[in-house]
């Protein structure tokens, strides 16, 4: 640090609880799921087993599938308590794997039920499926629900997801709600636990109503209420580089908006040609209660059009989202690692994070290092150290790859005693995470979040 710079007094993080917020959320979700699985199993056994093992397995798979659907609704509800602790990327990953588990449970349910009844009726599997659809209420609806789930599952496969615009992918996922409704009516019509036990019926109604209420509150009521309250609009549009722009927003009672440095919103700019597009952009400055700022690079048509926004344009913002915040800080000091436009949440965190801070800013060229002047000015004010690492992604320094373990240790010898916050392109982020693991940084001290959206 420049000895001529007068640093602000170092701020230290308050004592952290023994159980981190992330661990608390994971434990809560695990206990919630395990308790519900146990209850469903008890209800299934109490309802009586079929003489045909195939039918019993099929029924149990169907009950677990119904439970997985309700759990999926909880994961996509974007509840603030969960999102602040786990982050949308982790919730999305859990949602994805739960979705594939749900798909296999539904397939198991259909296959075992059909083959079980086919053996009982001495019928072919195809003939039995047609017979069940024609004779039992709700079976046809269940078949339609399965087809919809299969379509959504296919759209969620990596090869398909990479070829689809977010808006298209999101629209396809809306069919999941129709599938959930159809599956629920099927369960009401012929589900054994509904028909045989008032206690089980009460449980299923409570579970489904709670899940539906969570989605309604998190995805619709809360965003609408916040936007009616704060009435965001564009206050200024400032070019930061030839392909990067900052958008400043104002509104009412922004001091009551529960946003933190490091979080992001889904922004909808209410113009004629883009009101239907929602884009995730991080806050590039810590919220001050008067304005919000986002900074975006023109990597697509939507972000490129930000430069043409007019002052006064109304904005509908969903959020704040993300666990990339100081509530997860475990150590008195921190290392912030940014890559490209990933500097935006890092720049905001530098205002809010406690203790002594080292910032590593990775950019391909000096021109790509957006927000660098204000990052350096802010670092000088609060006594932080900034290292700018410019060069191609395969660049090597005197200690090997510039973000390899040896290079990180050379730049930050006390790295194992710091929290590490990483934001940048997927390849860079993965490289840094591998390096800090090799250096022995504890997992609870490492924080990275990718912008993955649960449908």
What would you say this structure looks like, in words?
Helix 3 crosses helix 4 and helix 4 packs across helix 5. The protein has 455 residues and is of the alpha/beta class. A hairpin with a 2-residue loop joins strand 1 and strand 2. It has a five-stranded parallel beta sheet with strand order 9-8-7-12-13, sandwiched between helices. Strands 1-2-5 form a three-stranded antiparallel beta sheet, with no helix packed on it. It has a three-stranded antiparallel beta sheet with strand order 4-3-6. The radius of gyration is 26 Å and the shape is elongated. It has three domains: 199 residues; 91 residues, Translation factors (Elongation Factor Tu (Ef-tu), domain 3); 121 residues, Rossmann fold, CATH 3.40.50. The chain contains 16 helices and 13 strands. The N terminus is likely disordered. It is found in: Membrane. Its main location: membrane. Pfam families: Ferric_reduct, NAD_binding_1.
Strand order of the largest sheet: 9-8-7-12-13
Overall average residue pLDDT: 87
Profile the largest sheet: 5 strands, parallel
What characteristic shape results from the CA principal axes? elongated
Q: Give the total of beta strands.
A: 13
- Give the helices and strands as they follow along the chain: HHHHHHHHHHHEEEEEHEEHEHEEEHEHE
Structural class: alpha/beta
Which percent range describes the beta-strand content? Answer: 15-25%
N-to-C CA distance: 45 Å
Summed up, the domain count is 3
How many distinct helices? 16
